[in-house]
């Protein structure tokens, strides 16, 4: 079995979540960790490249994940890395 060491790639700042995603009652830590370490989830090549560029140039970082329940969540870290917000896709 192979082990992968994950390493945060940028600061998250203050982490917040919307009422809609909190109402799901799920543990968001695994999704925040994925976002924090550069696993952008269900994004296309262009959006993943935009995140890679944002790591170098200071733009916002965006991830999208589909939960086992079928809900889609977005995680967005602001350009200045002051905050990260977790929300349902319909709250965007």
What this model shows, in words?
The relative contact order is 0.27. With 92 residues, the protein is α+β, with helices and mostly antiparallel strands. It is built from 3 helices and 4 strands, in the order βαααβββ. The chain has one domain. The termini are far apart. Strands 1-4-3-2 form a 4-stranded mixed β-sheet. A hairpin with a 5-residue loop joins β3 and β4. The longest helix has 13 residues. It is globular.
How many structural domains can be distinguished in the coordinates?
1
H-E order: EHHHEEE
Radius of gyration: 13 Å
Number of helices: 3
The geometry reads as globular
Tell me what portion of residues adopts beta-strand conformation.
Answer: 15-25%
Quick one: biggest sheet?
Answer: 4 strands, mixed
Q: Compute the average pLDDT.
A: 94
Structural class: alpha+beta
Physical arrangement of strands within the biggest beta sheet: 1-4-3-2
Query: Between the first and last Cα atoms, what is the distance in angstroms?
Result: 38 Å
Percentage of helical residues? 25-40%
* Number of beta-strand segments: 4
Low-confidence stretches: none
Write the layout of secondary structure elements.
Layout: E1 14-17, H1 19-22, H2 29-36, H3 45-57, E2 61-66, E3 72-77, E4 83-88
In short:
This protein is an alpha+beta fold. It is built from 3 helices and 4 strands, in the order βαααβββ. A hairpin with a 5-residue loop joins strand 3 and strand 4.
